Amino acid sequence: MRIACIYLPQFPLQIAQRQDPGLRGRPVLIAGLGARGAGPVVIACSRAAHALGVRIGMAVTAARALADQVQVVAVEADALAGAADAVAEVLLAQVERVDRGGPPHGSHHAAYAEVPLGCRGATFGARAVAELERAGWVARVGIADDRFTAWVAASRASEEAPVVSVPRGGAAAFLAPMPLGLLSISAEVQHVLGALGVTTLGQFAALPPPSVARAWDADYQALARGEGGDQLNVFVPRGEAHESVVVSPEHGLGAAVEALAARVAGRLQARRTGAGVPAVRVAFTSPTAAGEPRTTHVPLTLDGATTADALVEAMAAALRQHEAEHVSALTVSVTEAPTVSRATPIAAASAWGLAGGTAVTAASPDAADDDDRFVLTSPLTTAMVRTPHRRTRRGKQRPRLRPASQARLF
Question: 192-213 burial by CB neighbour count: b if 16+ within 10 A, else e?
Fold first, then answer.
C-alpha cells in the first residue's frame, strides 16, 4: 500500500483567503495563541507580509510595530476544523480511504490518503493537487510507503514541483540526508548527538541498539529508517458542512457563486449515499431598505444533481427569486444529522484589543488547543504523546526549546 500525504502550507492563511478573496496579495498575518500566559503570535503570514519582515512565531504586537499596514486576521478553531473536513471531503471524492489528519493547529496541516491500486503515485498526486486547487486550496503531495516519509516528502515539495514520489523501498535512502530536527527530539539530546557527529536521520538510524533503550527513542529510530507505518484513521463526513465567500468589488457575485458551486459539488459527491443527496441551502447577506444587513436562507432545488453547473443554476435562481441586490456574503450549507460541537474557538482579534482585526469563523465541529501553534510536527508516535518530564529543582528550571526543521512556507 502506498500512502499520500497532502500537505497544505500556511493553512490558516489559506482559510482566510479562501473565505475572503480580497485578502489575496495584501500584507496579512494570522494571529493565534502562543504558549500559556503569552500574548497572540503570528501563526501564518502572506508573502507581502513576509516581505515586510513579519515572521511566524513573532508576537503580533511586534509584527504590527514593524509593519503597521499589515492586516490582522484571527481564524477560530471551529473554522480550522471545518477546513480540515473540507480538504478530507475533496480527497474522499477521489479515493476510498482518507485520514483527515490530527486536529489542525499551527502554520501547516497534513492529511493522508491511500493511493488507489493501479495508479502511479505521481499521477494520483497531480490529480489531488488539481482537485484541491479547484476547491480553493494550495497543496503539496508526498507519496511513500509510510506516513512519516510521505510527510517529509510533501513538506519538501515546492510550488514548481508540488508532487514528490519516493520509490518503493526507497524510504531509508530518501530520509538518510534529512536533518535530525525533523524528529521531535529535545534540544539537549540533539546537542549531544550533534557533538558526536550525528546530525542526519541516516546517522541516527545507524546508531547501535545499546544507544537507544527507551521505547519512544526506538520509535524515533523506526521513523528514521522509513518504518513509520501505513495505518489510516478513516474519515467519515458528519454534521453540517459550510462554505462561505465574501463578495467584494474585486471578487463579484458571479465569481463567488462559481467558487461556492465548485467547492460544494465536491463535498456533495463525498457525502452522497444510497439514501440520496443531502439537503443544501444558501444564505446571502444583503442590506435592507434601512441599510442594515439582512441574511436570507433559501433551500436549493437540485433534483438529484450535484454538479457545479447545477449548483450555479440553483443559486442564481434563488437570488433572482428573492431579488437579492448588493450581496456582501454567500454561505452554502450541506445538512446532515446534527452532532455535538466540540469546538473551542480561539479568541478573535477584537478580544485581544487589536484595532482593525477580523475573525474567520465556521460552524463545524472538532477543535483542539495546543501550545506550539506555529511548530510543524511529524506524525504522532509514542514519543510525541508522552508527558514531558519536568524538573523539580527550581534552580534547574529554564525555558525549553523544541527543535523543528523549517518546512517550506509557501
Answer: ebeeeebebbbbbbeeeeeebe
* Alpha carbon distance 184, 199 (integer Å): 14
SS3 readout for 177-224: CCEHHHCCCCHHHHHHHHHCCCCEHHHHHCCCHHHCCCHHHHHHHHHH
Rounded Cα distance between 58 and 72, Å, is 13
pTM (predicted TM-score): 0.76
Place of cell 433559501: 298
283-333: per-residue pLDDT in tens?
888 777 666 777 888 888 776 667 888 888 888 888 888 777 788 888 888
Which strands sit side by side in the sheet containing 40-45, from one edge to the other?
A: 40-45, 28-33, 71-75, 358-360
| CA 95/CA 181 separation, integer angstroms | 32
Closest CA relative to residue 222, chosen from 78, 356, 365, 384: 384
DSSP state, residue 120: -
Rg (CA), the chain: 23
Q: Side chain identity at 241, as an amino acid letter?
A: A
Cα angle 279, 360, 347; round to 5: 120
Least confident stretch, 1-5, 82-86, 219-223: 219-223
Determine the Cα–Cα distance for residues 171 and 270; give it in Å rounded to an integer. 31
Q: How confident is the model at residue 230 (pLDDT cuts 50, 70, 90)?
A: confident
Count of Cβ atoms closer than 10 Å to residue 301 Cβ: 12
For residue 278, give the nearest of 335, 323, 239 by alpha carbon. Answer: 335
User: What is d(CA 129, CA 298) in angstroms, rounded to the nearest whole number?
Assistant: 33
pLDDT in tens, 1-34: 899 999 999 999 999 999 999 999 999 999 987 6
Phi/psi for 23 (5° steps) reads -80, -15
Q: In the 8-state DSSP scheme, what is residue 169? A: T
DSSP state of 167: P
For residue 329, which of 281, 393, 288, 285 has the smallest C-alpha distance?
285
CB 369 within 8 A of CB 344: yes
Phi/psi of residue 286, nearest 5 degrees? -145, 155
Alpha carbon distances (Å) from 376 to 176, 183, 196, 328, 389: 20, 10, 26, 35, 21
